[in-house]
Design brief:
- By secondary structure, the chain is an all-alpha fold.
- The two termini are 37 Å apart.
- It has 16 helices and no strands.
């Protein structure tokens, strides 16, 4: 009965971690949905309000590794609950902010907490389960990420439009603090000493460096298109504005499916799942460049893009834990920074393309960047010279020719 109880507790904790991921992604992006409301209320320009998102991402990029390095000896339960607590307080401060300067400061505090959360949450989630199902745990936690754009941001935007943006922030703060309390009760109280969780099971600094670079490029490709998917659907695909909500919901729903599907393959073929996700992303973006003006094709390709990107995020998180050259937390911090670099670069590039080359160009360039990332992954065995044959581990079998075989 003790094993069954532990299993149920771990599953509940994993669900709470997924909620934590949900509130972080929603909180980071919500100012975009409330941009005009906040700008009008504070008497600021829309570009100034955009700094709430840009500054947030910059802090995550710059502070993820230093903060993770400084807190390595602290138990994960404390780090997770403290991170969520700081996010909750940041959201409360944002809701009560009397001016733009205080609002921006509150966002930077929230970003500091996110720098730490994403660095430790993957190893925390996998540490709750035996090695053979840790890829599935990563994917299930990723459902929270996937639900944020399809449920969290639209709901928060609607609430902000109806009751004011401060109310939306307070509601998010309440959910965040409640999640912190639940995780405080469920997560282990001591620091884990499991090497499979705290250290990469197949450490390789060169493979990890390539993974970080591929992540930044692939995310930049996806965000070059996704950031400007609304004008793409209107100008290129010819949809009416009334159709945008359902179309964005299709992308989000496909993202949830992507996390569930990839979870079935991560433990058997971690590198294969990553290559497949980037390959599917490349096909979707290239397809939009060629067939974006055909509405039926555009819908299918947008769903493919959402599915592939969510699968990619889960695959990167899992592979990072496997090939981390040292601490898995520090490696996850590096991956988190790469994601945010890709988000910022893709958004900037997409804006420049729309201004100078037209809306249709975002899918073409996004697909090209994804293709570069795919080539990097496919060439990994040649780009990364093998020094010695790595030891076999349950998470990544190496028997040549077997159904579950995969490279490290």
């Amino acid at each position: 009965m003790a094993t069954q109880y532990d299993s149920r507790r771990a599953t509940t904790a994993l669900a709470a971690l997924a909620v934590g991921a949900f509130v972080y992604v929603t909180s980071e992006v919500l100012p975009i949905g409330l941009l005009t409301v906040i700008a009008d209320d504070l008497g600021r320009s829309r570009s100034e309000i955009g700094l709430l998102v840009t500054g947030y991402a910059a802090v995550v990029v710059l502070m993820s590794v230093p903060m993770t390095r400084a807190t390595q000896r602290i138990p994960r339960r404390f780090l997770i609950t403290t991170s969520l607590g700081l996010l909750g307080l940041g959201l409360v401060a944002a809701a009560l902010a009397p001016n733009f300067e205080v609002l921006l400061l509150s966002r930077l505090i929230s970003a500091l907490s996110q720098s730490l959360f994403w660095s430790v949450v993957a190893s925390t989630a996998t540490g709750l389960f035996p090695p053979e199902v840790r890829g599935r745990a990563i994917a299930r936690m990723g459902i929270g990420n996937a639900l944020a754009p399809v449920l969290g941001v639209p709901a928060g935007t609607w609430l902000g439009q109806q009751a004011g943006w401060r109310t939306a922030m307070l509601v998010m703060a309440g959910l965040t603090l409640a999640t912190a309390a639940v995780l405080g009760a469920l997560l282990p109280s001591t620091a884990r000493k499991d090497d499979a969780v705290t250290r990469g099971s197949m450490p390789d600094a060169r493979r990890y460096a390539l993974l970080v670079a591929v992540t930044a490029v692939a995310v930049a490709g996806a965000m070059t298109t996704y950031t400007y998917v609304t004008p793409f659907l209107l100008d290129v695909s010819g949809f009416r504005s009334q159709s945008l909500g359902p179309l964005l919901a299709v992308i989000g729903a496909a993202g949830v499916v992507g996390t569930l599907v990839v979870g079935k393959f991560l433990d058997r073929s971690p590198r294969g799942a990553l290559v497949a996700a980037v390959g599917l992303l490349t096909m979707a973006l290239a397809g939009l460049a060629l067939l974006g003006s055909v509405q039926a094709a555009a819908v299918v390709l947008l769903a493919m893009m959402g599915l592939a990107f969510s699968a990619f995020a889960a695959a990167v998180a899992h592979r990072t834990l496997l090939i981390a050259p040292g601490s898995t937390d520090l490696a996850s911090a590096g991956s988190s920074s790469a994601f945010n670099v890709g988000i910022a670069a893709g958004s900037l590039l997409g804006g420049l393309l729309i201004s100078h080359q037209g809306t249709a160009s975002v899918a073409l360039v996004g697909g090209a960047l994804a293709a570069v990332a795919l080539v990097g992954l496919m060439a990994e065995p040649k780009l990364v010279a093998r020094r010695t044959a790595p030891a076999r581990c349950p998470a990544e079998p190496l028997v040549s020719g077997s159904a579950g075989s995969d490279q490290p």
